Amino acid sequence: MTASFPRHHRSLLGALGLAAFLLLWELALRSGLLPGSLVPLPSAIPWVLAAEITDGIWLEVVTASLAHYSVGLLLGSLLGIAVGVAAALLPAVDALHAWLARLLRPIPPLAWIPFAIIWFGINPSAAAFIISIGVFWINYFASYSAVRSVDPGFDEVARAFGQGGFLARLAKVSLPAAAPGILGGLRAGLGQGWMTVVAAELFGIPGIGQRMMEASSLLATDIVVVYMLTIAGLYAVFDLLFMMLQHRLLRWQP
């Protein structure tokens, strides 16, 4: 049987693991096991970050990325949930778009970059479009599965209490019962959006991705690592805030 750790012990072990990884990284570079010209010293990263912030570059690129990340996340999430719920509840909608979903789902968001450039030009709207595609499918399948897994007996109870209309059952039965699954899809979409945002900016749209591309072309790997960690930090903040919201919305759960 696996022994369980208290939460503070797990946090301590996690911090120790991270510290050990950084220490080994630092020692490997200083001893010459890793090429210092291609891999930055961990101890140098805070100074590079401070320089980026002082020069105003960090805030500029992060603000730009947050703008089209937020738009893409909002559009992809709303459309994904709406289409997923509709397909789960309405057999005609499900049948109408089933083959279309199977055709489009395997296509990665980055494959839409040529169309994004043609339709929107090289501007933030193109990046938001690409981000929204990746977020859409996660929310679509999460919502579809969550609604389809709702116990049919709930609908029978709703009808018995005079709530037989479609909108009434949607608002009082389907969405509340499927809320954990739908919120799980939203949370996964938060991470998918950040995974896509860098690639969406690589073709010239201002933001974190463009800054990373500029730095990599100059072999400034320390700057690349700074923005890799920036993405990780931003995702951690968004995820924490969403978990707090999720806990509040699902406080009725046992």
From TrEMBL:
Domain ABC transmembrane type-1: 62-246
Alphabetical list of InterPro entries matching this protein: MetI-like (IPR000515), MetI-like_sf (IPR035906)
Transmembrane residue ranges: 66-90, 111-138, 223-245
Keywords assigned: Cell membrane, Membrane, Transmembrane, Transmembrane helix, Transport
Compartment(s) of residence: Cell membrane
Primary location recorded for the protein, binned into one broad class: membrane
Pfam families per the UniProt record, alphabetical: BPD_transp_1
Keyword Transmembrane: yes
Membrane topology: Multi-pass membrane protein
Keyword Membrane appears in the UniProt entry: yes
Family: Belongs to the binding-protein-dependent transport system permease family.
Official protein name in the record: ABC transporter permease subunit
Organism the protein comes from: Halomonas gemina
